[in-house]
UniProtKB/TrEMBL annotation:
InterPro entries: Calycin, Fatty_acid-bd, ILBP. The lineage of its organism: Eukaryota, Metazoa, Chordata, Craniata, Vertebrata. This is Fatty acid binding protein 10b, liver basic. Coiled coil: none annotated. Belongs to the calycin superfamily. Fatty-acid binding protein (FABP) family. SUPFAM superfamilies: Lipocalins. GO terms for molecular function: lipid binding. It comes from Seriola lalandi dorsalis.
Length: 130
């Protein structure tokens, strides 16, 4: 699995609903509806640095597979997260949400599920294509 690269978001499904369920501030919901971030992933073995760039802010998150790390959300909330690799997928899990990233052809696809969000949407949750 090689996630190295610069990934430009070009498609997002259920973004607004996901952010509302995740209790994101209204300002963040409005901004994210207008802005498609660029994600830069640098992978060195089991160590990763993910940088999310928007015109408003840049967030950097570093982690190692299998080790707990601290993540800061766009609105400043901090939470603990552990990422594992399973079948070529990166699975990030906290007590509130799960994110699964995988390479599909030339795209990286991420599906995020926040608590009961999966049960209130027709598909698997918030889906991003990069």
């Amino acid at each position: 699995m090689d996630f190295n690269g610069t990934w430009k978001v070009y498609s997002e499904e259920n973004l607004e609903e996901f952010l509302q369920v995740a209790d994101a501030p209204e300002m963040i919901v409005k901004m994210r509806k207008e802005v498609k971030p660029v994600i830069v992933i640098e992978q060195n073995g089991k160590d990763f640095t993910c940088t999310m760039k928007t015109p408003v802010c840049t967030k950097v998150h570093s982690f190692s597979i299998g080790k707990e790390s601290e993540v800061t959300s766009v609105d400043g909330r901090k939470f603990k997260c552990t990422v594992r690799e399973e079948g070529g997928k990166l699975i990030a899990q906290t007590d509130k949400f799960t994110s699964v990233r995988e390479i599909q052809g030339d795209d990286m696809v991420e599906v995020r599920v926040f608590g009961s969000f999966k049960s209130c949407c027709e598909d698997e949750g918030f889906r991003v294509r990069m």
